[in-house]
Inverse folding.
C-alpha cells in the first residue's frame, strides 16, 4: 500500500465529500425552487445516468491515464455548481452533472481498490465509500441547511466550489498510474451475476430524488431537514465501521450482503410510514446496518477479479447501475409526482429483495470454484 498516496486520497476525499454533503441532498429542493417539475428533474436524471453509465467505458478505451480522470471529475463538478447558479435548463444541468459523476467515481473506485490490500479491502472500501462520506454527512447537511436558511442557496454553492478546488489540490498529489489493460469485458457466469446485482441495486436507489424530498416534507424547514439528515448520519456512522471490520475478519461477504439486503428492504417497507423527524432518525439504524453489510459485496467484487482488470469491472459496474437507475425513473416519475412516497418505497423494497437469489447463486459458484481448485 502506498502510504502517502493513501493519505492524500483520504484528505482529498474527506474535503470532497464534505463539500458534496453540504449540497447534494438539498439539490432536489433547489431544482423545485428553480421552477423545474418532477418530469424536468426526471429528464435531468435520465441524461445524468446515461452519461454515468456510458462515458467511463469510452474513456477507458481511449484514455491511458484513467486514474487521472478524477481531477477532471472534480473540475466538472465545480462547473456544474457554477451552472446551477445561472442555468435552469434540465438538459444542460443533466449533461454537466453526468460528466461530474462519470469522471469522478470510476477513477475514485479504481484508486481505492489499487491502494488497498485484499486482507483489509472491506475496511478500506468502507473508509472511503461509507465512513468518510458518513462523517462528512453529519456536519455537511446540518451546516448546509443553516447556510441555505440564512444566506440562500447561491452562497452555499459558491462555498462548495471553493472547497472542491481545495480537494482538487490534494487529488493532484496522488501518484497516478497508467492503465495498461484498457477495457476488458469479463463475460463469465460470475461476472454476469455481479452485473445483474448492480442493475437491481440501481433500481433500488432512492437518494437521487425521493428520499431528500420526503425528508424535506416531513421536516417542514430546510434547517430542520439538515439536522434530521445529520442525525441519521450519526447513527449510520456509529454502526458502519464495526460491521465492515467483521466482514474482513470473517470473510463472509456474500452472507453479509444478504443480511444487508434484507435490512435495506425492511427500511424501505417502514420509511414511508414515518411522519415525524425522530421516526426517520430511528429508522436510520436499519439503513446504516444495511449499508454497512451491503458494502461487503463491493469488496467481494474487487477480490473476484485480478488487479489488472479493476478499471474494466468498475466501469462495467457503472453501466449496470445505469440500467437500474433508468428503470427506476419510471416509478419515480409516476409516484413522486403524486406525492405517493409510501408506494414508491414499498416498490423499492420489493426490488431490493429480488437480488437475494442472485447473491445466493454467487455463493454457490464460489463453492464450486473452491472445490475445483482443491481437486
Amino acid at each position: 500500500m502506498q502510504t502517502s498516496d493513501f493519505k492524500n486520497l483520504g484528505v482529498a476525499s474527506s474535503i470532497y465529500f464534505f463539500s458534496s454533503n453540504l449540497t447534494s441532498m438539498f439539490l432536489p429542493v433547489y431544482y423545485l425552487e428553480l421552477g423545474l417539475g418532477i418530469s424536468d428533474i426526471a429528464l435531468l436524471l435520465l441524461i445524468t445516468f446515461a452519461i454515468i453509465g456510458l462515458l467511463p467505458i469510452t474513456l477507458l478505451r481511449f484514455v491511458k491515464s484513467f486514474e487521472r480522470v478524477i481531477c477532471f471529475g472534480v473540475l466538472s463538478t465545480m462547473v456544474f455548481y457554477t451552472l446551477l447558479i445561472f442555468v435552469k435548463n434540465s438538459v444542460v444541468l443533466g449533461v454537466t452533472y453526468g460528466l461530474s459523476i462519470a469522471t469522478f467515481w470510476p477513477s475514485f473506485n479504481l484508486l481505492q481498490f489499487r491502494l488497498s490490500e485484499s486482507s483489509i479491502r472491506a475496511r478500506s472500501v468502507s473508509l472511503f465509500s461509507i465512513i468518510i462520506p458518513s462523517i462528512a454527512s453529519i456536519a455537511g447537511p446540518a451546516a448546509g441547511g443553516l447556510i441555505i436558511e440564512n444566506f440562500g442557496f447561491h452562497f452555499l454553492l459558491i462555498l462548495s466550489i471553493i472547497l472542491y478546488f481545495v480537494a482538487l489540490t490534494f487529488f493532484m498529489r496522488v501518484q497516478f498510474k497508467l492503465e495498461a489493460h484498457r477495457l476488458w469485458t469479463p463475460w463469465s457466469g460470475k461476472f454476469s451475476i455481479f452485473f445483474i446485482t448492480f442493475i437491481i441495486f440501481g433500481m433500488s436507489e432512492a437518494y437521487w430524488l425521493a428520499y431528500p424530498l420526503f425528508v424535506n416534507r416531513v421536516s417542514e424547514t430546510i434547517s430542520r431537514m439538515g439536522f434530521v439528515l445529520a442525525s441519521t448520519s450519526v447513527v449510520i456512522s456509529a454502526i458502519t465501521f464495526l460491521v465492515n471490520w467483521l466482514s474482513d475478519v470473517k470473510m463472509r461477504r456474500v452472507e453479509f450482503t444478504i443480511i444487508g439486503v434484507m435490512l435495506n428492504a425492511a427500511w424501505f417497507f417502514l420509511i414511508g410510514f414515518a411522519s415525524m423527524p425522530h421516526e426517520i432518525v430511528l429508522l436510520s439504524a436499519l439503513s446504516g446496518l444495511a449499508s454497512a453489510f451491503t458494502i461487503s459485496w463491493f469488496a467481494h467484487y474487487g477480490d473476484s477479479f485480478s488487479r489488472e482488470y479493476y478499471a474494466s469491472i468498475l466501469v462495467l459496474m457503472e453501466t449496470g447501475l445505469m440500467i437500474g437507475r433508468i428503470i427506476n425513473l419510471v416509478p419515480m416519475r409516476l409516484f413522486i409526482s403524486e406525492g405517493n412516497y409510501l408506494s414508491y418505497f414499498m416498490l423499492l423494497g420489493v426490488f431490493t429483495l429480488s437480488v437475494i437469489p442472485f447473491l445466493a447463486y454467487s455463493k454457490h459458484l464460489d463453492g464450486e470454484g473452491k472445490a475445483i481448485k482443491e481437486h
